Amino acid sequence: MASTAGPGHGSAVDPQGSRPPRAGVTVRARLLAAVVALTATALAVAGATGLALQLRDADARMDDSLTRAVGALRALEAGEPSPDDEDVRVPWTSLDRLLRKAVEARLPGEHEGVLALENGELRWRPADETGAVRLDTDAGLMAWLRAHAHETAADAAPQTVRTEVTEYRLVAVPVRIAAEPADVGLFVVAFDRTAVTADVRRVVLTYSLVGLFALAVVSVVAWFVVGRMLRPVRELRDTVRRVTESDLSERIAVRGTDDLADLAGSVNAMLDRLERAFGSQRELLDDVGHELRTPLTIVRGHLELLDPSDETDVRGTQALALDELDRMQRLVDDLVTLATADRPDFVRPAPVDVGRLTDDVQEKARGLGERRFVVVSRADVTVRLDAQRITQAWLQLLANAVRFSAPGSTVRLGSEVAGGRLLLWVRDEGPGVPPEEEERIFERFHRGRADRVQHGAGLGLPIVAAIAAAHDGRVVLEHPPPGAGPGVVFVLDLPAVGLVDGASDVSYDLVEPHR
Length: 515
What we know:
CATH superfamily of the largest domain: Histidine kinase-like ATPase, C-terminal domain
Helix content: 40-55%
Number of strands: 15
Strand order of the largest sheet: 13-14-12-11-9-15
């Protein structure tokens, strides 16, 4: 049996690589390429799978017909009808007659051919071969059949033979009879496999053309859809390019409610924060420059006017310079505290006994000035907080109370838990905060009238606010209830994280000011 194989197809490989540089390829182009590649792969896999299934089905139909042809021949070989009684089968006495009967019994279908050879020579073929295949006209097939004419096989199996004319799916069944042992017949049934599968290939070709058209449509639609989807990204790019250090007013138009719209909103929020941060930074630099310039100017002026020979003048200038340097040191320390307020390690929470902390703060406050410090309420609970930072904030509130109240007056403080919140508060008996300043007292470098008189830097309350914010809390300004007297109340409102209840020890000489 002769068989041929399809020609191989080599593939040239570019050792330098033929992939285009990615630096200039846009996201839109890459997404489009991915969509087209996936679509083309899906169409190719579907087409190849469909072609393989159709070809397998066609081969199965041809093999079934060839197998039935072999079975019919074997049944015919069992004997011919007796001249006296057709129901009786007698052995064949003529190989030529057997081959003739076999050809006559097989009516060729479309793309099918039948013939019989005897001793390698064509002996019989159907008289009417309308629509059938003339196998004897294919010299290559006839040569192959003559070469296999003397082969014997118990059961001929379907096989594929390819010639210069076409490809066949056939069975070649050797035939012998006992009456003529020297003669060898060959009964052949063959299908033109190329013609049988041509319809399948035409369908696949049509599918391929439709697939290419669909791929082109998908590419065009995907180009516009991807472009529309990526519009917020392009606007984001253009907006970021237009943003400069001096102009942060650009914003992205938010359209829709999808992820890209959410991204645009997030970027706008980030630009808002940056604009506020840069504004605060400029204001901070201006204020710091002013605050540091003032003591430097004072010290320089007094040093320029200093009379080295006057001991009193020298000592007075020394005391003034040291006082101004101390003020500058406090300002620098406060700025460092505020600068580190956004760091994760600014606070280090740990379980703290709030009742003991309240007593400790009261004890430390006694050195702030000649005031009567009274603990009004004490929360005997344990919560998680940074005791040092909370002490710093609480003492700052007490220092403010001392600054704005008269010597000998009462400064009240307390701690309690209400609604899952830890409340630490301070109340003084001073004149209070003017209504026009209440909104700005927590701003950096904002100083009220009393602060300006006492040369405060305006950083105390911002530090308290930063410590409260680091604990996910806040500091608020409240007023005593009607009839409770003058003064103002500052409350540190903190989440009671890790709350463990204990017995309460509360004094009732003052109605709780923040209720």
